[in-house]
Design brief:
Helix content is 24%, strand content 45%. By secondary structure, it is α+β, with helices and mostly antiparallel strands. It folds into 2 domains: 67 residues, Nuclear Transport Factor 2, Chain: A (Roll); 72 residues, Nuclear Transport Factor 2, Chain: A (Roll). It has a 9-stranded antiparallel sheet with strand order 1-2-3-4-5-6-7-8-9. A hairpin with a 2-residue loop joins strand 3 and strand 4. The radius of gyration is 19 Å and the shape is elongated.
Length: 161
């Protein structure tokens, strides 16, 4: 009986850690007032697709998933409502030429680009970055480039559709 109680406590603790580490879906009404106001200010006519909260580097952040002027936007806000990061899906022809050239010369060039995004860190002097979701057979990856076309991050997402 004692072993069962310990096992149950460990499982409960594990679930707590997983819940705290991951993204939690929330309703617009459950966002802090400052975040709601900021979403309305920055994206007044956007269709609201969903909202979530999670801890990133020890800070509580809120993400709005939106359709803004026909483009998918993920916007990240801090708990004070400050817009920190904006990821916008863009067509391939809007990806800067240095990024397209770098991708075309990479070992991933045989894959197909399934999504391209512009990533802007607001309040930063850094230029936008560009993320390409690619499919090579049944393998999925995300490649992140700086504006000059330098590959700065690569992540294998997995297999499947």
């Amino acid at each position: 009986m004692r072993t069962l109680a310990i096992a149950a406590a460990l499982v409960a603790a594990g679930w707590t850690v997983v819940a705290m580490a991951g993204e939690v879906r929330v309703k617009f009404e459950d966002l802090p007032a400052a975040v709601r106001a900021s979403v309305q200010k920055h994206y007044p006519s956007a269709q609201r697709l969903g909202f979530s909260r999670e801890r990133e580097h020890g800070r509580l952040m809120f993400e709005a998933e939106l359709n803004n002027d026909g483009r998918h936007v993920d916007a990240s806000f801090d708990s004070l409502g400050v817009l920190k990061l904006e990821e916008t899906t863009i067509p391939w022809h809007e990806v800067p030429q240095p990024v397209r050239t770098s991708f075309a010369a990479s070992r991933h060039a045989g894959g197909s680009v399934t999504r391209s995004e512009r990533i802007v860190e607001l309040g930063s002097k850094l230029p936008p970055r560009y993320e390409l979701a690619i499919r090579e057979g049944d393998l999925r990856s995300e490649l992140e480039y700086d504006s000059s076309g330098r590959l700065v991050h690569e992540e294998k997402i997995g297999r499947g559709d």
